[in-house]
Amino acid sequence: MLLCGRLASRASRLPIATGARSHYSRHASTGNSKVYNQTLRLPQTDFPQRPQRPANYAATSRHLADQIYAWQLANNPGPQFILHDGPPYANGDLHLGHALNRITKDIINRYQVLRGRRVRYIPGWDCHGLPIELKALAKLGTANGKAPATDAGDGAAASLDPLKIRRVARKTALTTLEAQKRELQEWGVLADWDVVYRTLDLDYEVRQLGVFRTMVEKGLIYRRTRPVYWSPSSRTALAEAELEYKADHRSQSAYVRFPMTVDATLAKRLGVQLQTLHNRPVYALIWTTTPWTLPANRAIAVHPEIEYVLVDPTSSGHDGSTTPQTGDTGPGPLYIVAKARLADLSAKLGLPADAPGSTTVAGSHLVGLTYLHPLNETILPVIAASYVTADSGTGLVHTAPGHGLEDYEACLALGIPAYAPVDDRGCFTAEAGPALIGKPVLTEGNRAVLDLLTAAGALLHRETIVHSYPYDWRSKQPVIQRATPQWFANLHSIQTPAIRALDAVAALPASSITRLQGYVAGRKEWCISRQRAWGVPIPVLYNEATGEALCTAATIDHIIGVLQERGTDAWWYGSVADFIPPAYRNDGQTYRRGTDTMDVWFDSGTSWTLLEAFRPPADQDPQPLADLYLEGSDQHRGWFQSSLLTAIATTGRAPFRKLVTHGFTLDAEGRKMSKSLGNVIDPRTVVQGGADRRRQPALGIDGLRLWVASTEYTKDVTVSDQALVTVGDTLRKFRNTARFMLGNLETGTVGETNEVITDVDRYALLELNDFLAQATAAYDALAFNKVYQHLARFTNAFLSAFYFDITKDRLYAEAPASSRRRSTQVVLHHLLRGYASVLAPLTIHLAEEIHHHHQKRVSEPSPSPVPASTVETADSSVAKPASVYAQPWPTPNPEWENSSLRHTWRALLPVRDEAMLALERARQEKHIGRSLDADLVFYISEGPLAAQCREAGRLFNMVPDDLAEVFIVSNVHLTTDPAEWRRGQSEGAYLAVGNTVPVNYPVAPHHGVVEGTVQVAVRQATKHKCPRCWRLCSAGVDALCPRCREVVGGIEDAATA
Prior knowledge:
Elements: H1 10-13, H2 54-75, E1 80-84, H3 96-114, E2 118-120, E3 124-125, H4 130-143, H5 156-159, H6 162-186, E4 197-198, H7 202-217, E5 221-231, E6 236-238, E7 243-259, H8 264-270, E8 282-288, E9 299-302, E10 307-311, E11 334-338, H9 342-349, E12 360-362, E13 370-372, E14 379-384, E15 397-399, H10 405-412, H11 444-455, E16 459-472, E17 480-490, H12 492-503, E18 506-508, H13 511-521, E19 525-527, E20 529-530, E21 541-543, E22 549-550, H14 553-566, H15 570-573, H16 576-579, E23 591-593, E24 597-598, H17 600-605, E25 628-632, H18 639-651, E26 658-662, E27 665-666, H19 683-688, H20 700-710, E28 717-718, H21 721-743, H22 759-780, H23 784-813, H24 819-839, H25 844-857, H26 899-924, E29 934-940, H27 944-952, H28 960-967, E30 971-975, H29 978-986, E31 990-993, E32 997-1003, E33 1008-1020, E34 1024-1025, E35 1032-1034, H30 1042-1056
Parallel strand pairs: 1-2, 1-25, 3-4, 8-11, 9-14, 18-26, 25-26, 27-28, 29-30
Antiparallel strand pairs: 5-6, 5-17, 7-8, 7-16, 9-15, 10-11, 10-12, 13-14, 17-19, 20-24, 21-22, 21-23, 29-33, 31-33, 32-33, 34-35
């Protein structure tokens, strides 16, 4: 049985016509075929082959985005969805990290709009803080004829009026903010751009001060002089979240001996006779990596349960004798160290590796002894501390309560005050002594201390070590710990409820919750004060005489009232009397304003307060204010944590329902992008192209967005020129795929009621169902890289390489109104609707172009996404945009489901794969030039399948005509005769033979399953080439095949009618 197949591959080489030209193409050809070119229904569309230039998209996309945002907020029927924006810093240009962050958020929001939810997204900016203040200082320095300030340690900040700094800083932040805002709008970020939030806005600052006031009322805010991380380069205190740890920091470490007070108490505690210590100095030996803190030493700490030993470096090490070795002129020194440290200390300091017979005592015996400070001859105590270990150093710890939190807490319990002779520049003060005054502690001052120790005979050994050390994350300079009076939030009482609240928060990746809980559990307090001018003032007055802070809920309420009326700048220029509440104006005291400002993490961490306005007035729902927070993984230490802590402290609940974190953008070698490495890729280069267009082509906004979608953003993301080129190629494939579909739809010919009649079309709808289900599941899981992969696979493997190849013949060569052609056009209609919707959150411009051109083609308008009667909050005054976002999300259609058909095609596809391999072998061996030069012979071996095939003349429920179309050959022959099959092989009629494939599938109409095996052979087509469709299924040379003869006849009849 021989029947014809499909249009020759020449049609696939013909370009898609554009503009208003006729569908009947007049492309040049050779031979008799040119007579029939005008009768082919080739694709025609004005859908552009290339996107517009990025600049041409900007204005229209902003306008359409504004329309979409307003319309969906007023008319979408679903619940409200709030993705709360973590404010980026208003400093510098946007980079790829910003693109990863903001576009990922926008994909989420746009998908939620498509699913019918009312998305509320308010972009924000973090506008206070040091980097902006430094820029302001640089500008003020230049304006005043001075060299620009290079860091906050310059004298500019101290000498300038804070109001001048604040005015310039505000202008600097707003200028940068507006530039960033314009670029974000160009990226297509869907938002209410008229209602952005800025941490410098008065209403925001007032809400922030309200949170501070509530925390004061709850007793969570206090002031204390204690060690904090201090940045000499920034001249301000830092919180843990503002630190970066540099793994290769180099420090000078030192072994230093402190002379013990030798008396009867010492001898008794050590368990030796006093005469044994006669004229023999006894030293407590310590090791430190911060020699500069030694002038602030106030104690030596030991662990009560560690064993300590009194060792003699000059002893023989065999009998424990303290007799001086030969050549010594007098008794040598004795050292107290942890017994467990002897082996490690022997090589460096010459101590015996073990000390048999030496006195060993528990650390508790040493507590209460005294020693003499080698630099200032102060008598100081030995104290107990549980944090001391024998894992490193000597087992005795130099303790400076002004330069370490553990030291501070251990000394505080004993009434030993913090002492830190270091100023805010990180230089020694006069209290450290004339030899050290003014020297920077981390450099020159550190060397000077070592020199003083050497001169005092206290330095036994020094060496350079490489270790992890904290740096200021803004200035990239090392920090110190320094005791200063600061304001703190007490986290002890809110740690447990915060950690418990996180148990109810979803996260992507799931490890985010554990990580955030770990950070919260590790913090006991939060230093919230900063010694800068550009920030929100801490609203506290101080008694001039006593220095005592006046800080109550009532005093803060009064101050907030003044600031709300005059602005926060008034804190620096208004009369102090205005800020004193009436109850304190006649108490006979004089007050001054504080000069500290709030930590910027407190600024941004209270941004959740603006969401309270979107909760219905009567809503007492304890659910979180935001559905989602999404930021970089570094925000576990930053915004995620500060938002959680301030919300728990004031409302008792977490402000977010779900946390999503993304990684950092890295270059192809896995390095962080930085200007110094020259590996930064500017988003504008991605959009507009680089100097070398082959290496850095212009991808447009859609290309930038598609790159973001292609990444597995929950991990660090590597980006390279080649990766971006690949994304650009994929985007072009998406565009050309849509263009093909649009080109094969004619205006007004396809409506919702057209029938799908062929199995390949029905199978295409099954594939569309699967694709929509996969894409929906990936979007729901926020796995946008999987959406990208599903799109690419559906486009390349199914549409382009399968369905389009199969259906080109009927689209181009069959009669315009034929039922088979209409069937495929109906499928193209559904494909376009689903394709545009799935693309819409990713490639906003391409999706809108597809939607616009598709709407012009269909005869029946797409239904409104929601009947008006079901939208309680619908606002008819807001115009419905002509946008894909005003259409319903395309979910899988149950009417397209057909389990029998699905089973049949699963059986067919492995046979088709074998046939394609056999055709390729025949092509490689030069037997055929193209698949239409061939016929296929299907051999069905004896059994139920063969019997059914002989009875019905079908295989896979298809007649040979349909099989020829699916297998893209000119003719198909079915045989169940083994003799005929062997004869074809023996006579060499078969050009290539595929492997045997076992198959089973249900047979219509009774749906019983038949089983058998199928083998495919390729043979030369035996008929003649049709000059119109190029299939080899014509009866004679230059004769039309039966199908084409009928189509051409119909066209001629219509022309003469």
